[in-house]
Amino acid sequence: MMIISTIQKFSLFLLSFCRLSLTHKFATVLSAIIFSKKSKKYLVSCKNLKACYPEKSQDWIEEKAKKSLIEYSKAMIESPFVYRQAEKNLYELIKNVYSENLIEEAIEENKGIIFMTPHHGSWEMSGLYAASKIKTFTMYKPLRNKILDDFVYKGRKTKGSSLVETDNFGVKKLLKALREKYGIGILPDHTPKINQGVMSTFFGVPVNTTTLIYKLSRKNKIPIIYLFAERLESGKGFDIHVGRVEEEFYKLDEKEAADFLNSIIESLVSKNVFQYLWSYERFRNRSEVNESIYN
Fold first, then answer.
1. What pTM was computed for the model?
2. How far is CA 16 from CA 8, 72, 140, 223, in A?
């Protein structure tokens, strides 16, 4: 175990000095080795894509599944370099920021901010970028691998972000952060436990959806900013896409609010389909739905 831990630490250290162009080439090769057509992540990706794009051909589904897993590999392997770069100058990795003024305007309102960052593009970059704008608190579920967990935990705190538990204690800390006019980060496409969310649809498919963003924002109309860090080709960096949830959101009920947020995620995914994390079992824990697309 000591030798394995040493190798893991050394590998992460080396990756932190590898520029994006190199790590992305390595990720492409690694993805081909790890994610065969019989691998679980490949099969789940195909099933999710088929459910969301039933009109597409099987060739299209398989192509997007393969590309999505390459992007997933890039997201994992690029993280050490992104964390290290964030300590020096995060903005060297950012080529364009679209609608950045929306964040500045939300900060000026002095209500706090809810950052909505789906599993799309580089969600690590999205979180670091948000934390570079305002002190931010985000939920964090520890990884099983202690070496990786320590590395990711420290990396996500690079820009001063505070990580809280994924339970009721964590939610209380998020509420406290908003009362103190800070930012909080939430993954809107995380699958809640059964009967803990509300049933909505994602690309027309029934999906269990978290209501946390709705519950935290509605009373005081907290600004909700959604982010997507698009990974550019050839390791050239990232483009940050910024948007803000419209005022009508605060007038909706839980079900309508879930539909509203899922439609936003759909629009972000449509900007770059294969950079979405299709290998995540998004359609689990559904109530009033008999079939499971993962059988």
1. 0.93
2. 12, 17, 22, 34
Give the Cα separation of 172 and 170 in Å (integer): 5
Q: Is the pLDDT of residue 67 over 90?
A: yes
- Give CA–CA dist 209/192, Å, rounded: 7
166, burial (CB in 10 Å: exposed 0-12, middle 13-18, buried 19+) = middle
Asked whether residue 285 is domain-assigned, the answer is: no
pLDDT tens for each residue of 242-263: 999 999 999 999 999 999 999 9
Give the span between the Cα atoms of 78 and 71, in whole angstroms: 10
**Cβ neighbours, 10 Å, residue 248:** 9
Count of domains forming the chain: 1
Query: Alpha carbon 169 to chain centroid distance?
Result: 22
Q: Which residues pair with 230 in a beta bridge?
A: 239
Three-class SS of residue 265?
helix
User: What is the domain extent for residue 96?
Assistant: 2-275
Residues 6+ apart with CB under 8 A from 206: 199, 200, 283, 286, 288, 289
pLDDT in tens, 130-156: 999 999 999 988 888 888 888 888 989
Strands 94-98 and 238-244, how do they pair?
A: parallel
**Residue 284, in any domain of the structure:** no
What's the CA gap between 154 and 193, in Å, rounded?
27
